[in-house]
Every structure is written in structure tokens, then in C-alpha cells.
Amino acid sequence: MSPEYIKYINLSLWDVAIAASLILISGAISVGLRLGLERRLALAAVRTVVQLLLIGLVLLWIFAPGRPWHFVVGLATVMTLIAGGAAVRRTERRYRGVWLDSVISMWTSSWLVAAVALFVVIRVQRHEGVWFPPQYIIPLLGMILGNTLNGISLGFDRLGEELAGKRDQVETALAMGATRWEAARPAIQTAVRTGMVPTINSMMVVGLVSLPGMMTGQLLGGMNAMQAVMYQIVIMFVIAAGTALGTVCIVLLSYRRLFTPHHQFVAVRLAKRRP
């Protein structure tokens, strides 16, 4: 007989306010050490509350029974576009067209692995004429997008730094007869490795150092512990695949824009962002 699990405990606004007051600890540390982070902490706290409340209202509406599928796809599209833009804003060096490349990388990788997870692994079923259950699609895609965003941002930023910092070596290799791929390969390898390493590191300690967010939420919601573990295993591998695909995609798209078919490195296209 399976053990009984308690249902999740509803939180009141007062409970949330108590938790929110803990940000004062961070503020006190900033004041005591003169870090100058008080305004940023306050802004971050306000944005956290406002953004999560807004997405909560949106999800309540999206999750309502009988909601047309295109609203679910529309929300997923907006999330993807925001993630693609956020990945670029974190980088120092950019080129014309990087915003489009980032969105393409985010869209292709995240939606592909999300589709595999939903329709091959979890095997969501058609319910009341809907093939797009938002309770699965939105949280799953959100986790994939968040991690893929980091991989794309780190990979692209490292590629720019590698090519800019080793411009002489790249151009010397091209002048010696190397193809554009041979000249750019070390930078590409370093960039892809940089984008993938954080996810690999988190996989190495998952379950030992911390319990991931999704698993914690399912446990708090009363799900069987082993079922929560299996869902988290699926999520970790899906995230790893999405991050790897997204990082490779942005790096290769950038490589094609920065090197011509005639094996020339157009370094002038890679401009450093103004402060």
C-alpha cells in the first residue's frame, strides 16, 4: 500500500509577507558592508512580487477549462521571445542579427526537447479536444527556457571574447591557408563547453546538495516521492539537451555571420556593447 501524503498547505498574504521581510537580511548586509546594493535589492524584490503575481493571474486564466489552444501557444511564444532577448542583453559583444539568431536558437532547441518530453516521454493525452495541456507545457517550457537562456548567453559571450581576444591567431591561421572552420574551431569548442558546463555541474550534485525546484514543488503538493524523483530526472535530461542544442545553435549561427564563405574573418561585425 502506498503511503498517504498530505495535501499542499495554502499560504495567506500574511505568510508571504513574512517571507518577503527576510529580504531585510540582505539589505542589512549591504548596509553593514557598504555594498551599495540596497536599491537593487529593493527593485529586485518589487519586480519579483509584481512579475510573479502577474504571471499567476495569467496562468489562472490560461489553465481554466476549455481555454483555446492558441492562447497556450501564444503564451509559450511570448516566453520564448523574452528569453531570446534576455540572452543577448547579458552579452558584451554583439553583431547585427544576433537578436534573430538568439530567438531562433532558443525556439528551435527549447520547443524541440519540450515536444519530446511532452509527447514521447510523459505522453500527454488529448483531453476535451485539447492537445496542449497548459499545466504541463508552460512549467516545462519555462524551466527549459531559463536554463537554455543561460547556456546561449554564456556560449555566445565566450565566443565573442575568444574571437576578439585571439583575432591575430585566427587571421594568421586563415592567411596560412586554414579554412574558416579550422581557424574558428578552438573558439567554437571553448564557447560550447562554457555554455554546457553549468548544467553538467548541476547534474553532478543534484539530490546531494539541493533538491531542484520542480521536485520540491511536487513534494509540497503531495506527490509520491518516487514519482517526483522520476519527473525531476526527466527534467534534468531535457534541460541538458535543450542547453546543449541552444548553445551549439547560437555559436554556429554566429560563426556563419562572422566568417564569410571565402574564409575571411569579419571582425568589424563583432562590436562591443556601449556601457
If you had to describe this structure to a student in words, what would you say it looks like?
The protein is an all-alpha fold and 275 residues long. The protein folds into two domains: 11-62; 69-272, no CATH class. 72% of the residues lie in helices and 1% in strands. The chain contains ten helices and two strands. Strands 1-2 form a two-stranded antiparallel ribbon. Helix 6 (134-165) packs parallel to helix 10 (225-258), helix 7 (167-175) crosses helix 8 (180-205) and helix 8 packs antiparallel against helix 10 (225-258). The chain is globular and about 70 Å long. The relative contact order is 0.13. The mean pLDDT is 85.
What is the spatial order of strands in the main beta sheet?
1-2
Number of domains: 2
The count of strands amounts to 2
Largest sheet: 2 strands, antiparallel
Computed CA radius of gyration, to the nearest angstrom: 22 Å
Shape: globular
Summarize model confidence as the mean pLDDT. 85
How many H/I helices?
Answer: 10
Could you say which structural class the secondary elements and strand pairing correspond to?
mainly alpha
Low-confidence runs (pLDDT<50, min 5 residues)?
none
- Termini, distance in Å? 62 Å
Question: β content, as a range?
Answer: under 5%
- Give me the strand/helix succession: HHHHEHHHHHHE
Helix content: over 70%
